[in-house]
Amino acid sequence: MSLTTTVPLTLPHLSSHAPHHTQSHPMTTFIRHQFNPIRRRSLTLAAASVRQPDTIPFTPTPLTDIKPAAESLFHVSIDVSDAPDLASTYTLPGQYLQLRIPNVDKPSFLAIASPPSVAVTNGVFEFLVKSIAGSTAEILCGLGKGDIVELSPVMGKGFCTDEISPPEEYRSVFIFATGSGISPIRSLIESGFSADKRPDVRLYYGARNLQRMAYQDRFKAWEASGVKIVPVLSQPDDGWAGEAGYVQAAFARAKQLYAPDSTGAVLCGQKQMAEEVTSILVGNGVPNEKILKNF
């Protein structure tokens, strides 16, 4: 069935600039001065022991790496090797947790970008964090190696790929991500879902421009695993010859045949994109339960 749906589009809100990680951001300087996150784990654990108990237990863990991933996006790695009970709560790509910074009231909800196997083999949770002015995420992106953050147990149903298995029956899988929504999609792809055994697996990945598109260094490996990458830029630079606009419209323009009863999809990112992609797929006969979301 060809797709001829016309999709109304609205520009999603995106922050314009990221703090340069090699320089001290004003808010970071303020936070370091006011709150001075404790670098020594023993001291932090002692401090945590006298804190009033919370409804959700939080585990103090040290940052092992923070570095730019793209404009306004940062790679964040956290050591969970001393918290095996926490690491073991991560079982499916698409799951998330709450991250709290000591003496900062509001936690952030973050999807885990690394596959569950990395927590087991390397003792690490990896994240892709969007730095938004005035948010806990901005403070996090200004911290450094050894600073302590607190993690809740892993939450959420994740992407239940059993719904689109076995690959012989679900031959087409369409994946859609926008902005930092690529984070749990990375976990999905690198965990493996037999993409190489399916003839048509496509990732439509939307960003404002290439400067805002994370994980470009992983595209080659993802394609080798059987996932065709379709970058879609809403405000491309001059000379861009790829898809422009929004992922839902790019998918609608593709006009490639697929059998609805042997098709699955995975969505993560901007709400309007998810709603419109779902509408397109369901309208073309794909069962709603075969459209996977992580919330």
Automatic annotation (TrEMBL):
Pfam families: NAD_binding_1. Residues 1-24 are annotated as: Disordered. InterPro entries: FAD-bd_FR_type, FNR_nucleotide-bd, OxRdtase_FAD/NAD-bd, Riboflavin_synthase-like_b-brl. Residues 1-16 have a biased composition (Low complexity). Coiled coil: none annotated. Residues 56-161 form the FAD-binding FR-type domain. PANTHER family: F9L1.8 PROTEIN (PTHR47215:SF1), PTHR47215. This is FAD-binding FR-type domain-containing protein.
